[in-house]
Design brief:
Layout: E1 3-7, E2 10-13, E3 18-25, E4 33-39, E5 46-51, E6 58-60, E7 68-73, E8 78-83, E9 92-99, E10 111-112, E11 116-121
Parallel strand pairs: 2-11
Antiparallel strand pairs: 1-3, 3-8, 4-5, 4-9, 5-6, 7-8, 9-10, 9-11
Length: about 120
């Protein structure tokens, strides 16, 4: 059974940091590109960051560029999202996903986690 499980969400003050993790099981996800998306209340899910299967290429939305860093450890089948200088507008449910190719659109991803809540207080 294919599973992506996010962890690391929580409540943090503005300016603080969190690191999200997404562990994969049930498939050789080391050969998959991975992405992070988020969905704030009342808004559509949006792209946050993506990383190629080898980790050599990373992509970010303009809203998080310079503050968030995506990385991966293929030996652990895990992808990370280091979030620094958090802002209240970063509050959302964060989802990780896996795709055969690096992508920005959610319909290009084949597998999804259940999401983890990140709340940034002002």
């Amino acid at each position: 059974q294919v599973q992506l499980v996010e962890s690391g969400g929580g409540l943090v003050q503005a300016g603080g940091s969190l690191r999200l993790s997404c562990a994969a099981s049930g498939r050789a996800f080391s050969s998959y590109a991975r992405g992070w998306f988020r969905q704030a209340p009342g808004k559509e899910r949006e792209f946050v960051a993506a990383i190629s299967w080898g980790g050599g290429n990373t992509y970010y939305s303009d809203s998080v560029k310079g503050r968030f860093t995506i990385s991966r450890d293929n030996a652990k089948n895990t992808v990370y999202l280091q979030m620094n200088s958090l802002k209240p507008e970063d509050t959302a449910v964060y989802y990780c996903a896996a795709s055969r190719l690096v992508a920005h659109r959610e319909d290009e991803y084949d597998y999804w986690g259940q999401g983890t809540q990140v709340t940034v207080s002002s």
